[in-house]
Amino acid sequence: MSMIRDLRAAVRPSLRPSLRKTSAPHSGYDTTRDPSASSAVVDCAVYRDGSRVAAPATPTPHEAMLQVREDGGFAWIGLHEPTEEEFAGIAREFGLHPLAVEDAVHAHQRPKLERYDDTLFTVFKTIHYVEHDELTATSEVVETGEVMCFTGRDFVITVRHGGQGSLRALRHRLQEDPELLAKGPSAVLHAIADHVVDGYIAVAEAVQDDIDEVEIDVFSTPAKGGRRGSDAGRIYQLKREVLEFKRAVSPLLRPMQLLSERPMRLIDPDIQKYFRDVADHLARVQEEVIGFDELLNSILQANLAQATVTQNEDMRKITSWAAIIAVPTMICGVYGMNFEYMPEVEWKYGYPMVLGVIGAVCFSIHRILKRNGWL
Q1: Is 59 in contact with 46 (CB distance < 8 Å)?
Q2: pTM (predicted TM-score)
Q3: If we measure between CA atoms, which residue out of 79, 67, 75 comes closest to residue 188?
Q4: What's the mean per-residue pLDDT of the chain?
């Protein structure tokens, strides 16, 4: 079986059980930044013929490049939230463009693909679904991070921002497939892109469940004491989270299309074919996110319309009872004016007659309003 046939299985996020239990192949391999460490480098390795070069300890970026220049292969350096000072030496060592370095150090970049001389600079937005027991007007649904990737002829530098989006499991999977890693840095770039987009698919499914829950609540019969229109805060909060999701997905579609369609010297032709699959999955997620936004707009409008209808129903009931109460108010007002000559004032049955008239008229008005749906 060729490497290309196994490519998708190697980069998918679902790990085989043996991989979940396997420890790092070399001491010092850890992509979780140690808070007490002074360096932002969380892992650095040299890969030759698809295998990680054994070393007594994880080499520094400078030592890794010396090995690459002497014996071939490529270096993969992983960093987590480096400062300008921490990244300056690496930027000089690999000849990175100052504009790309500035974007990599400062987070909150837009997903993009840029070429600087013989280096590709790619920005990915990672999305993590935040688990919650109940969706409220203040619930955080998605959490974003960033992964920047510098891809050269003989190196890959990944810069991660945020607490999510660790590449440790991805590196493990790639190291289990030497034939794939032998394709060089472009194989790592594809694996990262596929890993990020697979994360989008999982988050989209979870967000769909939240939207379904809100939709059911909006169109279901409100519980006793509940009121329609009270879900507007939840809907608006979910819409804001979907908008953040959309900002991560939509700008990335064009870079993935370029990587899959335009020949590039830094991208292996065999690997480039599989960027089409990533672009296809990303396009599907984008359609889903756009659909989420439109559906939430419809749900919000329906919710507001229900609130308006509820208010109208309340006003009709108030008006109906006011009309009923107006009858005894008017009659009692007339007979309370203390005129000496008034009809039936001297009659002993006048009082019960007036009460009977009031009751009959009020009952008739109530029946009419009830039949017309006002009460």
Answers
A1: yes
A2: 0.74
A3: 75
A4: 81
